[in-house]
Amino acid sequence: MSCKISSALTYSGSQLDVGLNYFGLVVCTTAVAVVLRPASKHCRRYRNYAQSSWIPLTAGLFVLQIGADCGADAEGISAVWAAQAGFLAVGWRLMPAMYRPRPARLATAAALSTALGLTVYYAMVEDAITSVAHAVAFGVGCALSRLHRRFFQIHDAGGDDHQ
């Protein structure tokens, strides 16, 4: 098993894949950062860190992605944006107060639309294992959203506190 991280992160030079996936990464990462911006107002624990928690979240997803790329002799970063989409989708339900500001709603809608479009595109042009990887990554993001809410003890200021 050989692992060429540079090839994994650049799709072995495929400009189309690089463009599509890094666009998805920028849109989804921006949405996560925008949604978490007011997090400190809704936390009961670690208020100073909640707002910037998108940084270690994204870094951790990259570590998982590179590990998966090396372990499966694959390439790509799509698991990062797919997991971020899962984080946003579940967060919308679990932490609605953080999604009330218009910028958060718009960024989340853009991210989920982009992730859906990329997932459909890759389902049509790549092997089925790519769709499985996207679904697994989305599920990881859903789980991370639940863990994030629990870790920071995020509550809904409007009184609609979901467990």
From TrEMBL:
Source species: Tribonema minus
Presence of keyword Transmembrane: yes
Record field: transmembrane: 20-37, 106-123
Protein name, entry field: Uncharacterized protein
Keywords: Membrane, Transmembrane, Transmembrane helix
